[in-house]
Known about the structure:
By secondary structure, the protein is mainly β. The chain has strands at 22-31, 36-41, 50-55, 63-69, 78-87, 92-97, 106-111, 119-125, 134-143, 148-153, 162-167, 175-181, 190-199, 204-209, 218-223, 231-237, 246-255, 260-265, 274-279, 287-293. Strand 10 (148-153) and strand 11 (162-167) form a beta hairpin.
Amino acid sequence: RRVDLDKKPAGDVSIQASFQRRILSVSTTFANENDGTWTLADWDGDRRPDLIFIKTSNTPNGHVEVHIASARSNFQRRILEVPTTFANENDGTWLMTDWDGDRKPDLAFIKTSNTPNGHVEVHIASGSSNFQTRVLEVATTFANENDGTWLMTDWDGDGKPDLVFIKTSNTPNGHVEVHIASGSSNFQTRILDVATTFVNENDGTWTMADWDGDGKPDLVFIKTANTPNNRVEVHIASGSSNFQTRILEVPTAFRNENDGTWLMTNWDGDRTPDLAFIKTSNTRNGHVQVNIAAGRST
């Protein structure tokens, strides 16, 4: 169901003054670069998301590198720059997750093509070793597939990241599907396979975040192109409804843009996810910029 954001919706969908107020717009220590993955995660344990660049090609020794700038310095000060145990590779998705439960983000590679047995693999190097020690390498229940977004989040609430595939095209009924394999089974056991309220769409970024604060990840679509008023929109379906019920649909403070990475993070510490845009090209001074709009407007 598509909601006209210029009209008051009926039923279960609410429109709130979310993502209207910018709470951060800064140029960072990093020069513009797109040879890898940009993300935000709390590396130094101060409960603020740090800016992380996972460099996966064109590195001096042929190994993936991790570069981190601290949130405390508004991303002006580098706090880690290391080559990792992984050789450069781009046949999948790179991300950060706390796999071993030590509250330190670990480096994960979800390999989704060119695997020996045709199944998606998960490879993880520990943050505590500065990504030198592998702590998991497994083939999963999923066959290789790239018609969507791969990520990790704790769906079942056991404290272990689960493997999530958000399938956004080539689905039987034309709706986005969510498929989840449990971390506790090393991604061998499926714990959710559902079609969602969203029709297939790829004009933006699909992710998960706990918007409603019930401890269950919600499905988030950050629509960054082809919106009615040329503003980025955020659409959220609740995890508690298995992604059948829309709980937020709003245009945001951001104009449509795709020169970087869109994601959800908790910047201001109020437990409501904020909308972040890491702009990695076409910036005024040639440096990566971080722009964040508050999830909760006050």
